[in-house]
Design brief:
- The chain has helices at residues 17-27, 64-76, 119-135, 151-175; strands at 5-10, 31-35, 95-100.
- Helix content is 38%, strand content 10%.
- It is built from four helices and three strands, in the order E-H-E-H-E-H-H.
- It is globular and about 60 Å long.
- Strands 1-3-2 form a three-stranded parallel β-sheet, with helices on both faces.
- By secondary structure, it is an alpha/beta fold.
- The chain starts with a strand and ends with a helix.
- The relative contact order is 0.23.
Length: 176
């Protein structure tokens, strides 16, 4: 299996994860994106809570086996992005960005169209807190972003962090 670099972007529903992932993909060489939103079960299989809200913000709403299979397939045979960035070439480490709502971030922006009254406070936020508590025991290196910053500021911060980490990875490959 070839050396790869995997990035996880998570946070609350409508928090900007997909936007950040797509912006990073435009600027990073050999970068692919897998979005958790592509793995929701059909609406007929989504449970409804006591308030009548479809329960999309739970793991059971997703076909995680299919998502994991897609990720495993990419890991076995990393696909290279056709995007050319800053003169980078195909020698670059293949990058996979996985983005989804179970990797936690809070954002205070206004949603268009707005959620039904009580949906965010009664369902989305409690589910986010539940999943975040579960993640706090995992020893992965997780960087939490400030969702009140502008899209451009968040992109700049993440992009610079990734460039530094990829440079470190390249140095490790050369010395290995």
């Amino acid at each position: 299996m070839m050396n790869t670099f995997v990035i996880g972007i998570g946070g609350v529903t409508n928090g900007g994860k997909t936007t950040l992932a797509k912006n990073l993909q435009k600027h990073l060489p050999n970068c692919s994106v897998i979005s958790q939103d592509d793995f929701f079960k059909p609406e007929s299989e989504i449970e409804t809570d006591k308030n009548g809200f479809l329960q999309y913000d739970v793991l059971e709403a997703l076909n995680m086996e299919k998502m994991m299979s897609t990720i495993s397939g990419w890991m076995e045979s990393p696909k290279h992005s056709l995007v050319s960035t800053d003169g980078e070439n195909a020698e670059e480490i293949p990058i996979l960005i996985i983005e989804g709502f179970l990797l936690f971030n809070y954002n205070t922006r206004v949603y268009e169209p707005p959620d039904p009254p009580g949906y965010f406070d009664g369902h989305v936020w409690p589910m986010y807190l539940k999943h975040r508590r579960e993640m706090e025991d995992i020893t992965w290196e997780i960087v939490y972003l400030d969702g009140t910053k502008s899209e451009e500021d968040l992109f700049s911060q993440v992009y610079e962090d990734l460039r530094q980490e990829l440079t470190k990875q390249k140095c490790l490959q050369v010395t290995a």
